[in-house]
TrEMBL record:
CDD domains for this protein: EcfT (cd16914)
InterPro entries cross-referenced by the UniProt entry: ABC/ECF_trnsptr_transmembrane, ECF_CbiQ, ECF_transporter_component
Subcellular localization: Cell membrane
Keyword Iron: no
Keyword DNA-binding: no
Membrane topology listed for this record: Multi-pass membrane protein
Primary localisation category: membrane
Lineage: Bacteria, Bacillati, Actinomycetota, Actinomycetes, Kitasatosporales
Source superkingdom: Bacteria
Cellular component per GO, a single term: ATP-binding cassette (ABC) transporter complex
GO biological process, alphabetically ordered: cobalt ion transport
Pfam families attached to this UniProt entry: CbiQ
Protein name: Cobalt ABC transporter permease
Key words, A-Z: Cell membrane, Membrane, Transmembrane, Transmembrane helix
Amino acid sequence: MGAGHAHKLYRDGNSPVHALPAHCKLAAVFCFVLIVVATPRTAVWAFALYAVLLAAVAATARIPAGFLLKRLLIEVPFVAFAVLMPFVAEGPRTHVLGLDLSVSGLWGAWNILAKGTLGVAASVLLAATTELRQLLLGLQRLKMPPLLVQIASFMIRYGDVITDEMRRMRIARLSRGFEARGVRHWGVLAKSAGALFIRSYERGERVHLAMVSRGYTGTMPLLDATTASRTQWTRAAALPLAALAVCLLGWTL
């Protein structure tokens, strides 16, 4: 985790949100998501206020709306599942635009869409304002199990390596005139997948041996001892505290 690793979700900037320590932002987003999930689904106005809070964070971080909306497309499979719920759920029925829909299914679909979208949006804002290396260091500072942090670190680092290996193998096949056009070519693709697995496994062994030869004992050193000040924690807590107030109103009104 000593070297930087850029990712497509990150948007470089020098906003107050970017300047907050990663572990502060991780804790704030985690608490915000818990509060959103705990909000009663019937408090529709509360979810609108949550969206306003996230929009305020995005504006403070100078994250364009298009950048955020484009990356929200990752939840499309969940949207498709939610759309089906009013048709398959049981219970009292109602008619909407000539369609016979389940009342409980409609509320369930709304619950998934509202809370899922807000959670994904908060995660996208976190990724857009925090580098991957800082996220991993933030997890370390929050006392996440070291083994899980190391697995995440290696997965991020060697995902690009394996992707590049796949690209080279594809170029090698194309240079030999191969083009997958049907079931007959699945055997070649299966052999390529097997070769990729073997190469990745061998690379992992070599990396592990190199780490052991340099003194690796199962834990990675904490290379960044940056601590957060009380002011930084207060700024990070602004989002979940505001969300908590909305949630409490949602339960009482």
